[in-house]
Design brief:
single chain, alpha/beta, Rossmann fold, 6-stranded mixed sheet, about 35% helix, about 30% strand, globular, binds adenosine-5'-triphosphate, nucleotide-binding
């Protein structure tokens, strides 16, 4: 569903990504991990068709740059790390924007569009907030609204850049379980970034460890979340314990 070959990205005169190869199959969940500044968000932005790049990126067999804006929006939904919020926008209007690729240019939203939005708002505990201005929500409420807009888009590929960084542990589990259900029910393909390594390993089929703009390891969580790799790449002191659903990474005080 996602095929990246020899990806290179230069920003502000610096080479940010070099020779990145990555494939994600339909229905698969791959999470990109790596230290601050490694190039994770840049990789997601490139896959989302938002960046000039070298090499090739295709979605479902079509090169991203060959897709029109509308085709791209029907194929891939993005939750950016810090989305731009139009001023004065209410929650319902913002989430309805996710239906834009499904509405004809001069048309209005259909009963199905409204039903999809209602369903997503309900699943994300957002029904009480529909009339509120986005600017008045807490960080965690706002993050769920960003996800709601992306899910309302009903695209087969979902790109999530640190989607749960502002969420309490209960909402974090709700959100990740919801995404997991959707990929099982609808073959949704998920490419995410995450800093919580234990959670990353619990939900992803595979992890891709990026450092210095290159892929340094890829594989099932148990192969990537090793003390040796994490110590080297993050310069962190960690213990990796065996959990019921994968490795548990515990920071250790010096
Ligand atoms: N427009 C730009 N000009 C120059 N450098 C940039 C630009 N945009 C991003 N960078 C640099 O590219 C590198 C990778 O950034 P990116 O946001 O992809 O990292 P990241 O792995 O997502 O980091 P984090 O974990 O901190 O979110 C960083 O060093 C960043 O400063």
């Amino acid at each position: 569903m996602i095929r990246v070959e020899g990806l290179g990205v230069t920003l502000g005169g610096s080479e940010i990504l070099t020779g990145v190869d990555l494939t994600v199959s339909a229905g698969e969940w791959v999470t990109v991990i790596g230290p601050n500044g490694a190039g994770k968000s840049t990789l997601l932005r490139a896959v989302g068709g938002r960046l000039a790049h070298r090499g090739s990126i295709s979605l479902n067999g079509t090169h991203v740059s060959a897709l029109s804006r509308r085709e791209l929006a029907r194929t891939v939904a993005v939750v950016a790390q810090t989305p731009v919020v139009p001023p004065g926008m209410t929650v319902i209007d913002y989430v309805l924007l996710g239906r834009t690729p499904h509405i004809s240019p001069l048309g209005r939203e259909s009963a199905r569009d409204l039903a999809v939005v209602d369903g997503v708002l309900d699943r994300l505990d957002l029904a009480p907030f529909v009339g509120r201005l986005l600017a008045t929500l807490s960080g965690g409420e706002r993050q769920r609204v960003f996800l709601a807009r992306a899910l309302a888009q009903e695209a087969p590929v979902l790109l999530l850049d640190e989607p749960t960084s502002a969420l309490d542990i209960g909402h974090q589990q709700d959100v990740l379980d919801l995404v997991d259900d959707l990929r099982r029910d609808r073959d949704l393909t998920v490419l995410a970034t995450m800093h919580d390594l234990s959670v990353a390993g619990e939900y992803a089929d595979r992890l891709v460890l990026v450092a210095g703009g290159r892929v340094v390891a890829t594989g099932p969580p148990a192969e990537v979340l090793t003390e040796e790799l994490l110590t080297t790449q993050y310069r962190a002191r960690v213990k990796v314990l065996k959990g019921a659903h994968g490795p548990i990474v515990v920071p250790v005080r010096s």
